[in-house]
Amino acid sequence: MKRIDAYILRTVIGASLIALLVLVALETFFTLLVELEDLGTGQYGLAEILRYLALTLPRRTYESFPMALLLGGLMGMGALAAGSELVVMRGAGVSILRLVGSAMRAGLLLSLFALALGEFVAPRTERLAETGRSTAKDASVTIRDGRGFWARDGALFVNVRAVKPHKRLADITLFEMAPDSSMKAVIRAPSADYDPASRRWVLRDARRSTLGEERVTADAQVSFAWESVLDPGKLDVLAAKPETLAMRQLQTFAGYLRDNGLSADRYELAFWSKALAPLANLTMLLIAMPFVFAHQRNAAAGQRLLIGIFLGLAFFLANRVLANLVVVYGAPPLMAAALPILLFLGSGIFALRRLR
Asked: Is 153 helix (H, G, I), strand (E, B) or coil?
């Protein structure tokens, strides 16, 4: 029995890795076509494009794992079915449950590898890739299409137009609010540098405008120390999409948003989606199994591939649509992340129970 388990393990892992290689290669090729449109913008040349593609490879690999496991399960186990090997195994007294369990062990190993890749490698390389690309195109790393970002820091509402390398901000505006929610003062500065010793941002050539009851008083200052919980680490989070961040970064920034009375649903949803990613990967592999055992010998490889594509698209759409709908209607982000997985997992278990 151990030999059968090891054989199925090798088959599913091998087929999944081949599917992963094909998926990543296709996505990399299409990304290359998109990036070539910006060739020659600033200092963004072919070498910078290749560097960007290489650094974003871990993120693309991580995102392709669910589909790779689905296709790997269909093609790997399907090849065993087409060669009548599954029939022989079942004739030898091996149950469907045991065969599926062996395939799921392979999925678990690959899912753990994907989890480590998405938590420790992809966030760092993705940040380097985005920073390098933006710096090559322009001297500043502009966040969110040049409009910068907004954040709340206690009694301050902060607008930063751009984040430059070496922990420097550009075009900063601080709106200081009074306890009655009226605007108390506005502080503007063309640049700011972070001082890690004092954990403050030092605004250069700052100008403070105090709003009185009858007039506005403007004071020019050479520098202004802004004590803030927005350190450079949180700025990296603001500059990146939640889906590309590590779980520890998502948890930290979600706590910052809650402490400032802001909605953290988007970051909590991304956190739970990453935390439940191994279960989602195993679910994708599980829903492939009924199609393998229901059509053990009369299904061609092309048919299985088509089934896998449709199942993957269905899971992707359900995950996006249901997750966003649940969040819109105020349900907990954990439910939003878990609901599509539970629906597909239940469907896969139900279909397997109907097999004899």
From this structure: strand
- Statement: the pTM of the whole predicted model exceeds 0.90: no
Predicted confidence (pLDDT) at residue 64 exceeds the cutoff of 90: yes
Q: What is the pLDDT of residues 233-259, one digit of tens each?
A: 777 676 677 888 899 989 888 887 887
Give the H or E element holding residue 168: strand 168-177
Q: CA torsion, points 88, 93, 94, 95, in degrees to nearest 10?
A: 110
Burial 70-102 (b: 16+ CB within 10 A, else e): bbbbbbbbbbbbbeebbeebeeeebebeebbeb
10 Å CB burial of residue 171 (0-12, 13-18, 19+) is middle
Asked if residue 210 lies in contact with residue 176, where contact means CB atoms within 8 angstroms, the answer is: no
Q: What is the Cα–Cα distance from 24 to 40, expressed in whole angstroms?
A: 26
Mean pLDDT throughout 116-127? 93
CA-to-CA distance for 301 and 174, rounded, in angstroms? 61
Q: How is the chain split into domains, by residue range?
A: 2-138+267-354, 155-228
Helix (H) or strand (E) holding 91: helix 85-91
Closest CA to 66 of 276, 328, 302, 331: 276
Q: Alpha-carbon torsion 115, 117, 120, 123, what sign?
A: negative
Question: Of 98-112, 156-170, 253-267, which has the strongest mean pLDDT?
Answer: 98-112
pLDDT at 29: 96
Residues sharing a CB contact under 8 Å with residue 83, sequence separation 6 or more, in sequence order = none
To the nearest 10°, report the CA torsion of 108, 312, 123, 118.
Answer: 0
Range name among 46-60, 212-226, 294-308, 342-356 with the lowest pLDDT average: 294-308
Take residue 249 and report the two structure tokens written for it.
Answer: 């970064």
